[in-house]
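ugh finaly. both done.
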Amino acid sequence: MLPTDQVSLICPRNDLESDCILDIAVRLQLDIREVAGDWGVTLDDALRQHPDLDSLRRHVIVIELPGATGQDFLEAAGKQVHMVDHHGPASDGPMPSALEQFAALVGYELTTAEYEVAIADRDFYPGLSRAGVSYARAQALRQEECVIRGDADLLDEARGFVAANPRRLGDLTLYFAPKRLANVLLEAAQEPTAEDYTEAADQHRPVQLLQVLAVFHADQDPASIRAVRFAGHAAARDALRSLLTDLALSNGLQLWLGGGNLGCFFGADARKGHPAPPFDHLMSRIFALLGGTSRPLLHYGCTFLLPLDLHESSELKPDPAIHATRFRKALARKEQAGDIRRHRLAVVDPGSLPTQADHERQCETQPTSIFSRCYGTSCSMRRTRGDHYPLTTQIPPVPSSAGGSDRMLSTTCVGG
């Protein structure tokens, strides 16, 4: 525990958790350096606003302000720096919220209301329902968060947007949206119904939320991709961690990863001034990683392009590196059982694909992307069976013998 009379706090006020930390710091009479800035502000930005390092006390607590250069400056000035955050690769697993870490550092015992703020920041609605927090209280916490960020009106806009524009890929819901909604779209898309939340809270269990992946374009230019956001299962966190250390990504994108035991979130913003932020590479990696955690292709019968993981769920191990021999054996078993049909595709040069699909052979060489304005991937989406958007190369549907909706051929395309 740090002596409070020797502590300076450097902290923004850009969400409910930081607002709560600053209020506690006032009561504890800490030396406070409040930082102006929205999400994404850094310690370097903070020190430009508060350049007098000599006036800081011996211990400096920095709240959710990343920046190795700024930390070096503080340490060079003789300060003991305590970086408080729960985003990024700093630990092998989920970390306590910034509010909980701050309270432990200064020896402060959180109240019930303050614990609810910490839970909401760390574990969102699933954490609140597991703690038995009422739906009304959970909604009030989220609304207060939006008011502090100045996003209340945008959240209402985002609710309308997500209701009108979902694209579903198994248990993953995709959005292509304007950048102004980047801070609120995931919240709107994952907001549980009162009935689902209350049932979970009554049983003290985490409420189940959608997995959401969103690509954001400049508000006036859909061809200019500026950000990516993901929120989903906690199992995706370890897989997505590798993105933070990929220099091909971090050189052009500002990346972060967070969440607790009940979920995870990931974000990427284009670095200011970078001529070509590597969003194509990022999306390829995200889809590859999520395919090993959420496994959306497990759930529908359709035509799709390899490589992808055809192992049964029971065969998956914590290590995602499955040997090629095991992959081939699983493929052979499924082919022998008649679950899949195996054939080859004609190789087509990029840019030469036809615009219309007239027959099966032509369709097999016409993969496009749901985010074709954002990046090029060898897949396309087509709506079948209600609200689901299976991955398909658009082979013509086979009429259902029982009437009703058509069904898609269940085949696998291998090689090239």
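ok and the 2nd:
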Amino acid sequence: MMAFLRKYEVWCFMGLIIVVNTLFVSGIVFKILPNGLYSYGRFALLGGTLAGVVLLARGWPGIVDLLRPMTEWRRPAWMYLLALVCNPLVCLLVLSGISLATVGRLPDIQLKYSVLTRPDVAMIILFSSLVGEIAWISYAVRRLSTRFTPYVSAVIVGAVWTAWWAPMAIYGYGIVPGLPLAGLLFNQIGVAAVCTFVYMHTRSGLLVLCAQLAFNSSILIFPVMPTDGGLQTYWIFAITYFLVSMLLFVIFGPKPVFSRRQPEEDAAVRA
């Protein structure tokens, strides 16, 4: 059993967290568990499941390795700026393109900054972004990248990330209403790919955290979700984000983008 866990550690984690999260969300929806657990509970469960799997497979050295990317913070200021502005720029690109195509002028965008001034929302964004960075990028993408290319690893993680969100979307509980699963898939692959791009070029978990904070804030500030901009706007946003993330890899690498990673590349990726 332990040999299997050590060999397929990352796959065990990804499969387990989908099952555990589905049970947790179902328990909330059907009132088996108290509603108050939901906001932080799903992310605490994500982090706790990851810590448990890593601890069983590799012991405390594995936990230290899990957190190591977050200690890498000494990077040029322009890298932080890029991580913070990439997501808002995609939102602006989408909304401007839709407005120019439909009414022939730039949009008058109503930004919802007020939602971020609520301490409860701000804390959940921070907590979810931190746990998400460690679980999906610093851990899952980094482990998968020893076998696959970084972009393919990001696509796999994006698909699993979507499956993690799927119970909330299907039940319509604790998530933006009306999110289509196919659109969510494009969106989450795009998020995973952008975060992977940032990580592979900086090796900094803190920079990835900045990118995740920017994304999670942007979709609340800009009217790109179905509840604010409509379903068509969300589809355009999700597909555009997906294409932009792929284009980043095609232009700037790391390459190859799609083919399997060669064994001699493994050591460099583990660094």
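summary for the 2nd one i guess: The mean pLDDT is 91.
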